[in-house]
Design goal:
The complex is a heterodimer of chains A (about 325) and B (about 270). Chain A contains 11 helices and no strands. By secondary structure, chain A is mainly alpha-helical. In chain A, helix 6 packs across helix 8 and helix 10 runs antiparallel to helix 11. The radius of gyration of chain A is 28 Å and the shape is extended. With about 270 residues, chain B is of the alpha/beta class. Chain B is built from 10 helices and 10 strands. Chain B has a 6-stranded mixed β-sheet with strand order 6-7-8-3-9-10, with helices on both faces. Classes of the chains: A mainly alpha (about 325), B alpha/beta (about 270). At the A-B interface, helix 7 and helix 8 of A face helix 2, helix 3 and helix 6 of B.
Chain lengths: ~325, ~270
């Protein structure tokens, strides 16, 4: 091997370099400026939420006793609780999830996997996106006319659940479509190539692999529905309720009962709204306590959505 | 024309003296919307042999391959004209009277990039049987093992059939996909540039596998690699701009191409 002895020429100062350095420093400045602006912008949201939550906790913390969760509302602030409200919220959410999720997931999968690309599909797609932006009170008006009067469901848990199911549908449809679209086309081809039908491809591959995304959308949709007040007031939710609906399960066959669907109801945000609008700081403390419950519930649900997505995505690699 | 000066080694796969036709393409046209991608293709595919489709990008070789299992039907606005007749029962598999699922149950496919399902190795191989309604564990077990042996993967995975198929190496994943394509006892297996995402060692093992499979199944392979076509195939078709330019035994096509365009392509003047 021939040996090479290279020579290196070193000079103290090269004319262009100083200019390059000052140029870099000048342009770097804007990096820093944007980083600061961006950080402040992000902080606004987080700090506001934190301030709000701290305020709620300071006002309502002392009311968060077991009794608060186990008492009906009362004319005496100190004895009032959120039993009927949280039970109502749970039952309404059950209806919302049971009706809204299958409808929205089916619709999302249909639009992605089955629907032909034509003007009708496009029209439906635009409408679904627009529905997400419709004010919730409008859903309330629709539900009042349709569920409460036309279909005769009355001012019941069923009507409330259906109303919120309609409301979360666009969110879940969009989440479903995005999740379905994220399944690589090569996976579908692989399944079709061994002779699978469209339904088999959907059932065995597309749906299972998009569950993380769909679940996230469902939980975020439900978390939004939990805080809804306006449409439920519109359909006639009660603000003072001192009884519980019949339990959905019983000890005698057939063990599942549906009487509760027709029961009157209240939900947490309406209970909170009711207490806020009363004079007297004692009730305001109750409102703050109910607020804490709602915020914690929402945060827990969102956190669970993130956890679920993380856990399930880890198992699916392409 | 005399032998072309080319770096391509002479084909190693022999030609059966009395070949049986497995499939006969006659007057095949294919359209993506208004764009005609295949123009009046006539070609016979011989049983239990490897037939390679070569040609520059966009020449229609993958399009032709995908006609064989009606993959185009998954896309809207595609149209077949003419015939691909499949023997021995002499059906036109691109006819609109024939359900594409029926065709895919007889002709399976291995894709460019390994695309195992994010399921266990076992379920990957068994899927084609499951969609047909095979439920008996004993039958599934036997056919999964046979397919994995056929794909030269059994010894490497027999102790971890429940592990995800996606955890295998690239070459193993592609052999898993070959096992999946073999599990349903297809009459023809289509390969669409099966080694283009693999390293040279994995490529060699896939090529060996294709050669060994040819005794029992008819193989059509698209490749952009002329050496690969020469190594694995008995017959080669050269396609250009949607037309079949030249088709014949691989040895003849590589050593004595009859068409100027074929020899230009083989010598690297274009493509």
């Amino acid at each position: 091997m021939a040996s090479i002895s290279p020579s290196i020429a070193v000079e103290a100062a090269v004319p262009g370099v100083a200019e390059i350095r000052s140029n870099v420093v000048r342009r770097r400045r804007w990096d820093i400026v944007f980083a600061v602006v961006g950080f402040l912008a992000t902080s606004v949201g987080v700090v506001t939420l934190l301030a709000l939550f701290v305020d709620l906790v300071m006002d309502g913390y002392h009311r968060l006793t077991p009794d608060f969760f186990l008492s009906f509302p009362s004319r005496r602030a100190a004895e009032a609780g959120i039993l009927s409200a949280w039970v109502g919220t749970c039952l309404v959410m059950m209806v919302t999830a049971a009706i809204g999720v299958p409808l929205a997931v089916s619709a999302g999968i249909y639009l992605e996997e089955y629907a032909p690309r034509n003007w009708l599909t496009t029209l439906i797609e635009i409408n679904v996106s627009n529905l997400a932006a419709v004010p919730s009170i409008v859903y309330g008006l629709l539900a009042l006319g349709l569920f409460v009067y036309a279909l005769g469901f009355g001012q019941s848990i069923l009507s409330a659940g259906l109303t919120l199911a309609l409301m979360i549908m666009p969110v879940v449809v969009v989440a479903t479509r995005e999740a379905v679209r994220a399944v690589p086309h090569t996976i579908r081809e692989a399944a079709y190539a061994v002779g699978a039908t469209r339904w088999q491809v959907t059932r065995d591959h597309v749906l299972p692999y998009s569950i993380p995304g769909i679940a996230t959308g469902v939980i975020i949709g439900l978390a939004r529905a939990i805080g809804e007040t306006a449409p439920l007031i519109t359909i006639g939710a009660l603000t003072f309720i001192a009884y519980l609906p019949d339990p959905p399960i019983s000890t005698t066959p057939p063990f599942v009962r549906f009487d509760w669907l027709w029961s009157g109801f209240t939900v947490l945000p309406i209970q909170m709204f009711n207490w806020v609008s009363r004079p007297g700081t004692a009730f305001h403390a109750n409102a703050a306590a109910a607020g804490i419950v709602i915020v914690v519930l929402t945060l827990v649900m969102n956190g669970f959505a993130i956890y679920l997505r993380y856990r399930l995505r880890k198992r699916i690699t392409w | 024309m005399s032998a072309v000066a080319t770096s391509v080694p002479i084909a190693t796969q022999s030609v059966n003296a009395d070949p049986k036709v497995k499939s006969r393409i006659r007057g095949l046209n294919f359209f993506y919307g208004h764009l005609q991608a295949l123009k009046n293709i006539d070609m016979d595919i011989y049983e239990h042999a490897v037939t390679a489709l070569i040609g520059p990008s966009g020449c229609g070789k993958s399009t032709l391959l995908r006609c064989f299992n009606r993959m185009h039907d998954l896309k809207p606005d595609t149209r077949y004209e003419g015939e691909i007749r499949l023997y021995p029962d002499d059906v036109n598999i691109v006819s609109s009277d024939i359900d594409p699922i029926e065709v895919r149950m007889r002709i399976s496919m291995v894709f460019q990039k390994p695309n195992p399902f994010p399921k266990s190795i076992y379920e990957n191989v068994a899927y084609g049987l499951r969609v047909r309604g095979v439920k008996a564990r004993s039958e599934l077990d036997g056919r999964v093992e046979a397919a994995l042996r056929g794909a030269a993967l059994w010894d490497e995975v027999k102790d971890r059939l429940e592990e995800p198929g996606t955890a295998l190496s690239g070459g193993q994943q592609q052999r898993l996909c070959i096992a999946r394509a073999l599990a349903t006892d297809p009459e023809i297996v289509l390969f669409d540039e099966p080694t283009s995402a693999l390293d040279p060692i994995a490529t060699a093992s896939i090529e060996d596998l294709i050669i060994s499979m040819a005794g029992s199944v008819t193989i059509l392979i698209v490749t952009h690699n002329m050496q690969q076509a020469a190594r694995v195939s008995s017959y080669t078709a050269f396609m250009y701009l949607g037309e079949l330019v030249e088709y014949g035994p691989t040895t003849e096509l590589f050593t004595r191409p009859r068409q100027q365009r074929t020899s230009d392509y083989l010598t690297g003047r274009f493509g």
